[in-house]
C-alpha cells in the first residue's frame, strides 16, 4: 500500500513536502517560485511524478536525481520540524485507528501488508512513528532509493516488476496475488489490467467518476472499507 494519501493523510505534513518539491524544481531549473509551482503541478499531473517529468523533458538521470531529490525534499530538519509541530494533532490517532483495523484483519487472515511508496524510507518511518505504529507490522517498506526499488518510481512499469520479484522471492511463491492500494490513479494504471494484480483506488470523495466505468479498479473511501 502507498504511504502519502493512503496511510499518511496529514494535510500539514503533505503540504510541507509539496512545498519542498516546488523549491527543488525552482533551484534545479533556476526559475521563480510561481513558475516552479505551475510546472511542478503540470509534471505531476502529466507524468505521475515530478522527477519522471524532468527526466522526460530535460533528460535527467534518475540514478542521480532520485537520491538528490529525496535528500532535498525530505531533509532531516524538515522531518524533525513535522514531528515537533504536529505531535499533538489528533489526526495521527485517527490514521492509526484506520490502519490498525486493516493490519489486524490482515494478520488474522495471514495476509502480509507492505508499504510501497515513492517517498524515501526515512519519511515512511517518520509517519509510522508519529502514528505509533510499529514498522515491523509491515512485511517490508519498499521506497524510492532503497535496494529493491532502487531509483525507479511509480508509475514506471519496471518498478512494479521489481516489487513483484522481491515479494515472490521473499515468500518463495510465484504468481502471488497482489492487492495494491494507491491514491494516485496514475500509479494504478500500469497494473490495472495485469494478471495477479488488483488495483484499488483510495479516493475519499469518490469523485473520479471515470473510475466507475473501469471494472478493473476498485474504489474505496477509507481503509476500513476493505475489511
Ligand atoms: Mg500517494
Entry keywords:
single chain, 227 residues, mainly alpha, Rossmann fold, 3-stranded parallel β-sheet, two-stranded parallel sheet, 50% helix, globular, binds magnesium ion
Structure description:
The chain is mainly alpha-helical and 227 residues long. It has a single domain (1-227), classed as Rossmann fold (3-Layer(aba) Sandwich), CATH 3.40.50.1000. The protein is built from 9 helices and 5 strands; from the N terminus they run H-H-H-H-H-H-E-H-E-H-E-H-E-E. Helix 1 (11-29) crosses helix 2 (33-47) and helix 2 packs across helix 3 (50-58). It is globular and about 50 Å long. The two termini are 15 Å apart. The model has no long low-confidence stretch (mean pLDDT 93). Magnesium ion is lined by residues 2, 4-6, 182-184. Residues 2, 4-6, 182-184 line the site of magnesium ion.
Short description, anyone?
The chain has 227 residues and is mainly alpha-helical. It is built from nine helices and five strands, in the order ααααααβαβαβαββ. It has one domain (1-227): HAD superfamily/HAD-like (Rossmann fold), CATH 3.40.50.
For the biggest sheet, the summary is: 3 strands, parallel
Count of helical stretches: 9
CATH topology: Rossmann fold
CATH class annotation:
Alpha Beta
Q: What are the segments in which pLDDT stays under 50 over at least 5 consecutive residues?
A: none
Sheet with the most strands: spatial strand order: 3-4-5
Apparent shape: globular
CATH superfamily placement = HAD superfamily/HAD-like
**Structural domain count:** 1
Tell me the series of helices and strands, N- to C-terminal: HHHHHHEHEHEHEE
Please, what is the average pLDDT? 93
End-to-end CA span: 15 Å
Name the ligand types.
magnesium ion
| Beta fraction | 5-15%
Radius of gyration: 17 Å
Query: How many beta-strand elements?
Result: 5
Amino acid at each position: 500500500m502507498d504511504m502519502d494519501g493512503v496511510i499518511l493523510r496529514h494535510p500539514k505534513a503533505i503540504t510541507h513536502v509539496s512545498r519542498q518539491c516546488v523549491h527543488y524544481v525552482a533551484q534545479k531549473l533556476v526559475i521563480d517560485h510561481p513558475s516552479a509551482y505551475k510546472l511542478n503541478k503540470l509534471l505531476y499531473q502529466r507524468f505521475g511524478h515530478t522527477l519522471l517529468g524532468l527526466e522526460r523533458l530535460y533528460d535527467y538521470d534518475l540514478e542521480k536525481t532520485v537520491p538528490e531529490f529525496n535528500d532535498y525534499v525530505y531533509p532531516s530538519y524538515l522531518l524533525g520540524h513535522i514531528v515537533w509541530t504536529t505531535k499533538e494533532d489528533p489526526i495521527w490517532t485517527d490514521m492509526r485507528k484506520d490502519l490498525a483495523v486493516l493490519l489486524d484483519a490482515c494478520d488474522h487472515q495471514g495476509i502480509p501488508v507492505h508499504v510501497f511508496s515513492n517517498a524515501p524510507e526515512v519519511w515512511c518511518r517518520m509517519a509510522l512513528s508519529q502514528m505509533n505504529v510499529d514498522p515491523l507490522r509491515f512485511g517490508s517498506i519498499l521506497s524510492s532509493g532503497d535496494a529493491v526499488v532502487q531509483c525507479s518510481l511509480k508509475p514506471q512499469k519496471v518498478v512494479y516488476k521489481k516489487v513483484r520479484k522481491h515479494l515472490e522471492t521473499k515468500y518463495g511463491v510465484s504468481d502471488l496475488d497482489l492487492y495494491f492500494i494507491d491514491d494516485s490513479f496514475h500509479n494504478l494504471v500500469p497494473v490495472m489490467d495485469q494478471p495477479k494484480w488488483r488495483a484499488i483506488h483510495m479516493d475519499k470523495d469518490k469523485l473520479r467518476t471515470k473510475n466507475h466505468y473501469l471494472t478493473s479498479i476498485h474504489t474505496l473511501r477509507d481503509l476500513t472499507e476493505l475489511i
